[in-house]
Design a protein that fits this description.
single chain; alpha+beta; Ubiquitin-like (UB roll); DNA polymerase, domain 1; five-stranded mixed sheet; 5 strands; globular; binds FE2/S2 (inorganic) cluster; 2Fe-2S_ferredoxin-type; 2Fe2S_fd_BS; metal-binding; oxidoreductase
Length: 163
Amino acid sequence: MKHDIRLTVNGDTYTLAVEPWRTLNEVLREDLNLTGTKLGCGSGDCGACTVMVDGRSISSCLTLAVEMDGKTILTVEGLAPSGESLHPIQEAFIEKGAIQCGFCTPGMEISALNLLTANPSPSDAQIRSAISGNLCRCTGYNKIVDAIAEAGRQMKPHAKVRR
Ligand code: FES
Ligand code: FES
């Protein structure tokens, strides 16, 4: 039996009928076509599925969609302030060469947002701790850490964060 839920995703509100066993990741990717949020392990280990829910990052693969009724969700598609410009986190990932295959990038950037919103001047250790749940097979992490530090510097004076 399906349940009606109401989600606000990247500023748009949706009413959906979902089976109780479906995850938020499935609903975002399959029902809303928001495929920027990736599905990697499906078991809470890789962070590729990370999204913000009511201002906190969570693993969408471990979250049932029915539990999200009434919640406000931000995915990587909502990170940029407009179609014309990128978010400082996205700019920094490009500038610092922190993207290779890109599969980890949406989850990394959402985890970065979660960190930088609370602490725009994190130490390298704090950055590494904040992304410890996000696996990257390509970059070796150093460029991602550099990118997040740079994004923090850029966000301090003119942060525009949708949560
Ligand atoms: S897909 Fe969710 S943590 Fe890996
Ligand atoms: S850039 Fe390929 S997994 Fe991170």
